[in-house]
Amino acid sequence: MRPLVDLVDTHLHLDDARFEADRGAVLERAYQAGVRDVITCGSDLASSEANLALARRFSERGEEPPDPATACSSPARVWVAVGIHPHEAGRVADLEEAARRIETLAAAPQVVAIGEIGLDYHYRFAPPGVQQAVFERQLALAQALGKPAIIHAREAERQVLDTLARYPGVRGVLHAFAGTAEQAREALDLGWYLGIGGMLTFPSARQVREVASSVPIERVLLETDAPYLAPVPHRGKRNEPAYVPVIARALAELRGLEAWAVAASTTAAAAALFGIPR
Ligand SMILES: [Zn+2]
């Protein structure tokens, strides 16, 4: 099996406590598995700050290409999305102040997106109206800053798509996309990308596979959502970015493509959307 050498994990949560003991090793395993870059997503202001601190710590190599001599002991490069997740929307006391703090964080060169933001009607930790206000304020910020957005939509795909249509200047990715084929087409028509992760390998995720098998491959990004949603055969365990090749191979098999072609396409898409140097 030809190894995959240049993958991007476009969505994970490196600040999660489950990575506390071995974050460096996780990033090194990712690199050895061919995952050269990861994007770690904030879920509130504190987590956005924590992720940025991690990026500074682990990616001091900046834009330099990895040195082949030391490649085996290099960690994957860490990029950051800053923002407030819909689960945390109810904790925002002053939305304008929060937007100012996100804007300040977004000025750091490691920050490539606003995220993760969106709507979650499954858990409804915050009332829909509050989620909507926090979501839209951050979309407006993404538009003002010219940054892509990373979107969480759970049982709220319809509302998210209607909202995105009102911010035509913003592009980004619908992460862990689980909507219908029709909704996928709408997102693509709006110029958005779809994030595909471990759910692709879950036997019950028929709709995810249906969408993943039919959307234009150049609009697909790979992601783990680590530590959540580990792909089969790691399902139920802690997910990590080194499993991106499992997802790339599952997608390749589903679409009758070579895994290296899926890697090349998804990495080119991630580099283009997030401005990650190649
Ligand atoms: Zn996430």
UniProtKB/TrEMBL annotation:
PROSITE patterns: TATD_1. It holds the Pfam family TatD_DNase. Gene3D superfamilies: Metal-dependent hydrolases (3.20.20.140). CDD domains: TatD_DNAse. The keyword Metal-binding applies. The keyword Metal-binding applies. Keywords: Hydrolase, Metal-binding. GO terms for molecular function: hydrolase activity. InterPro entries: DNase_TatD-rel_CS, Metal_Hydrolase, TatD-like, TatD/YcfH-like. NCBIfam families: YchF/TatD family DNA exonuclease. This is TatD family hydrolase. It comes from Carboxydichorda subterranea.
